[in-house]
């Protein structure tokens, strides 16, 4: 049951990430989080944030929901680590975080924003089996 879900998510990530909604460029994310550009690039390098290249010019884009005025969304880094352990690409991880899940209810990213990391990570861990 998990394998078809994984394939469905991979297809969504490869085809379209429109469910994400708002995206930020690195300079926009830096402004929102009140950080220098180099700090945002460091967050990307350390995988506290993830991004994909989008659009005609392939601009590095970060989902706006990942960024808060205080910095990266709380609990995002650990969840991204769990998804990476399940061999998700950055695009697949983003797609999964924004895919509605009736058992949460809502999306995993909304659950993280509501400080429900345990529920989200439990589901993310199940994807690797």
Distinctive features:
single chain; 129 residues; mainly alpha; 7 helices; 5 strands; 12% strand; disordered N terminus
Walk me through this protein's architecture:
Keywords: DNA-binding. The chain has helices spanning 2-15, 26-33, 37-45, 76-85, 90-97, 108-113, 117-126; strands at residues 23-25, 52-54, 59-63, 67-68, 71-72. The chain is mainly alpha-helical. The protein has one domain (2-126). It has a 3-stranded antiparallel beta sheet. A hairpin with a 2-residue loop joins β4 and β5 (71-72). Residues 1-15 have low confidence and may be disordered.
Question: Percent of residues in helical segments?
Answer: 40-55%
Structural class: mainly alpha
Percent of residues in β-strands: 5-15%
Number of E-type strands: 5
Characterize the main sheet: 3 strands, antiparallel
Overall residue-averaged pLDDT value: 86
Going across the major beta sheet, what is the strand order? 1-3-2
Q: Please, how many helices? A: 7
Total tally of structural domains: 1
Order of helices and strands: HEHHEEEEHHHH
**pLDDT under 50 segments (min length 5)?**
1-15
Radius of gyration in whole Å, from Cα? 14 Å
Distance between the termini: 10 Å
Q: What is the 3D form?
A: globular
GO molecular function, one term: DNA binding
InterPro entries: Rv2175c_C (IPR041098), Rv2175c_wHTH (IPR048576)
Keywords: DNA-binding
Protein name: Rv2175c family DNA-binding protein
């Amino acid at each position: 049951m998990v394998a078809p879900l994984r394939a469905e998510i991979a297809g969504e990530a490869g085809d379209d990430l429109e469910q994400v909604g708002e995206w930020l460029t690195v300079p926009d994310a830096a402004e929102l989080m009140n950080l220098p550009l180099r700090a945002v690039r460091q967050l990307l390098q350390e995988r506290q944030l993830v991004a994909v290249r989008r659009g005609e010019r392939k601009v590095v884009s970060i989902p706006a929901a990942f960024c808060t005025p205080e910095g990266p969304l709380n609990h995002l880094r650990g969840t991204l680590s769990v998804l990476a352990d399940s061999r998700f690409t950055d695009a697949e991880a983003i797609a999964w975080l924004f895919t509605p899940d009736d058992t949460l209810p809502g999306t995993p990213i909304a659950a993280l924003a509501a400080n429900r990391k345990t529920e989200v990570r439990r589901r993310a861990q199940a994807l690797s089996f």
